[in-house]
Specification:
13 strands; alpha/beta; 13 helices; six-stranded antiparallel beta sheet; 33% helix; 364 residues; seven-stranded mixed beta sheet; disordered C terminus
């Protein structure tokens, strides 16, 4: 049994989201957003390299020894499945292990609004799930694929780096391919997928212009594409896609988004009111005719106004979602204030006065 399993097992049992290993510190658990050290000695470079070496394949070991970061999935019957990033830093090696749930949560369990289900009724187009690293995008995508798998007869091809949730084909055929293992890149995987009779293609990350262009081609040619971007709002998502293409293609890209973008789910994770977990809070954009017109006319900056007034279509701004969760006493008020854009709406809920703007009183 690999010795590192003892730390990974402890982390899973404690309910952490990540286990971190770094030279000069004991192993650390990410508990509800905070890093908590395990009661263990500080790891030396030789000790940590030895622990990690036990779980690397020859290919991964050669890649790491050549100086590259290594992303892979680690699975063991004793500890379950983890997404791993192995890297080198100033003081030696380091590794982050993301805990992957033993079961795929449903969209309902994640607390996502019903409009997300409606997105999945589409037969072609593109659905984007966005947010910073560690905000649960992969979990949301996993829940989407799981729902499609159990409700529709489709050929679903996923391109992941690395594979996280493992899907067992049910009503659908689910073909999971890992970047670096089965295909060289997302763009190569997309190019191949278009020759494999897909109905749905999941792209783990739209990380470069070539991948974005291939994803748009797939959506235009009758496929449903699910993808992620590291953007924090619907407006920033659209801007990021348009900005990724050359100047002479920006108008075509805006036209594509107006026609084929089904919706954007931008999410963050916020500590729950009881401090024992984190809840996904989402901004939702549905590509209505009004939104499409704003995209076509280059008035993307006006989209937030439409989100704010689009409740009947299932839309909501991040601030609206935060305020709703706060009023239901589902999330920590201080974290809601930190994440809010219009902080004035949240000041009256704050319990830590140090978070509030300080006013200098000048006496004469």
């Amino acid at each position: 049994m690999p010795r590192i399993n003892a730390f990974l097992k402890l982390g899973r049992e404690q309910g952490c989201s990540d286990v971190h290993f770094a030279v000069g510190t004991p192993p650390l658990l990410r508990m509800h957003g905070d890093l908590v050290p395990i009661k263990y000695r500080e790891l030396t470079d030789d000790e940590l390299e030895s622990l990690l070496d036990e779980i690397l394949s020859p290919k991964q070991r050669a890649q790491f020894e050549a100086g590259a970061d290594v992303d892979f999935s680690y699975q063991d019957d004793e500890v379950g499945r983890f997404r791993v990033n192995l890297y080198r830093k100033l003081t030696g090696v380091g590794a982050a292990f993301r805990v992957i749930s033993n079961r795929i949560p449903s969209l309902r369990e994640l607390g996502l609004p019903p409009v997300v289900d409606k997105f999945l009724d589409a037969h072609q187009g593109i659905i984007l799930v966005t947010g910073a690293t560690g905000t649960g995008k992969s979990t949301t995508l996993g829940a989407m694929i799981d729902q499609l798998n159990h409700t529709r007869r489709l050929n679903i091809i996923t391109l992941e780096d690395p594979i996280e949730f493992v899907h067992q084909s049910d009503r659908s055929l689910v073909v999971q391919r890992e970047i670096g293992t089965h295909v060289n890149s997302f763009a190569d995987g997309l190019r191949a997928a278009l020759r494999e009779d897909p109905d749905v293609i999941l792209v783990g990350e739209l990380r470069d212009p070539e991948t974005i262009e291939m994803a748009m081609t797939a959506a235009e040619t009758g496929h449903l594409v699910l993808g992620t971007l590291h953007t924090t709002s619907a407006v920033k998502t659209i801007d990021r896609i348009v900005d990724s293409v050359p100047t002479d293609q920006k108008a075509l890209t805006s036209n594509f988004l107006a026609q084929h973008l089904k919706g954007v789910v931008s999410q963050i994770l916020v500590r729950t009111a009881d401090g024992r977990g984190r809840k996904a809070i989402v901004e939702i954009m549905v590509n209505t005719k009004a939104i499409a017109n704003l995209i076509l006319s280059g008035r993307v900056f006006q989209i937030p106004t439409n989100l704010q007034s689009g409740k009947e279509q299932g839309m909501q701004l991040m601030d609206q979602a935060l305020l709703n969760a706060l009023q239901r006493q589902q999330i920590d008020p201080d974290e809601a204030y930190i994440h809010a854009t219009d902080k004035k709406l949240f000041q009256r809920f704050v319990s830590d006065p140090d978070l509030l703007p300080q006013v200098d009183l000048v006496t004469g």
